[in-house]
Design goal:
- This protein has three helices and five strands; from the N terminus they run βαααββββ.
- By secondary structure, it is an alpha+beta fold.
- The protein has one domain: Roll (Thiol Ester Dehydrase, Chain A), CATH 3.10.129.
- A five-stranded antiparallel β-sheet has the order 1-3-4-5-2, with helices on one face.
Length: about 130
């Protein structure tokens, strides 16, 4: 791994099941993550993914690429455009910095509305 290396993109279909299951798994029972009618009453066109699910998907993207020995040291993300059912999020990454067995990767997850998530992940890959 070296600065400038690009990770292959990962396409994640955004399904209603993924959104609801992620909310339940992270114990986020906010109605906007499972009830379309209440989400619409609050101004959203449909339910949308929570940040904890997004965080998990970003972590998965990095560990899928770097392998089972990869250790996530830091994940710092910011949400943008919401992930609604029926869309696809495409995660991409670029290695920004390498220090020994540790790399910092810039991650972007985009959907049909724009950038859903941006951030950096620090990952250690023991030799």
């Amino acid at each position: 791994m070296k600065p400038g290396d690009r990770l292959p993109p990962l396409e994640i279909p955004i399904t209603r099941t993924l959104i609801v299951a992620g909310a339940i798994a992270s114990r986020d029972y906010q109605d906007v993550h499972h009830d379309p009618d209440l989400a619409r009453q609050k101004g959203s066109p449909d339910i949308f993914m929570n940040i904890l699910t997004t965080n998990g998907l970003v972590g998965r993207y990095i560990t899928d690429h770097f392998g089972p020995r990869a250790e996530l040291r830091r994940v710092a993300i910011r949400l943008g455009a919401p992930n609604h059912p029926g869309d696809t999020m495409v995660l991409t990454g670029t290695v920004e910095e390498v220090d020994g067995d540790t790399a910092t990767v810039r991650v972007v997850g985009a959907n049909g509305l724009g950038e859903h998530v941006t951030g950096t992940v620090t990952v250690r890959v023991p030799v």
